[in-house]
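Support reply, case 0932

Customer input (verbatim):
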Amino acid sequence: MLVVPQAAGADARILCLGDSLTAGHGVAAGADFPSLLQQRLREQGFAHTVINAGISGDTTAGGLRRLEWLLRQKPTIAIVALGANDGLRGLGTQEMKENLSAIVQRLKQAGVRPLLAGMRVPPNYGRRYSEQFAAVFQQLAEEQQIPLLPFLLEGVAGEAELNFADGIHPNAAGYRRVAESVWTALQPLLP
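Our regenerated output:
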């Protein structure tokens, strides 16, 4: 679902490219982290428009396929929060890294400043895969010289009171914490 808030005339747009963690799976409209960012930006006097381009179940390959269409929105900043579904499906980390790298490169070519949000997989995927998976985000941020939010769900993952019963998707309280982490990482990119 693509949600463009009312202030669509604002020149500065922040694209939130992601999966169900961005889309706000399970929470009421306005409780997802992009909506909370939009609220924070308005409170702080920024005219930015936040575009929620989160689609439940999306992978890095899906995000890459959607990117050209999303660039028509002319974002100035993009928060790339993809990879969780690649990990949950046990997809190869090299393919995930290549997809994320292509997304970041295309954003840069379009003059968009990327912010990469790291992901982790549950420990039952095995230590080796979990470590390789988490390392992709750090490596990519270093190689592409872009800012990194090390883990989108920092302080939320594994906290029962901040997640729905599935243990994967944040509830409204969890999203408030996610929004705080994203806001902290986003601030240096704002004018």
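We compared this against your earlier run and they match. Two observations from our side: The first helix runs from residue 20 to 23. The beta strands are 13-18, 49-54, 77-81, 113-117, 148-149. Please reopen the case if you see a mismatch on your end.
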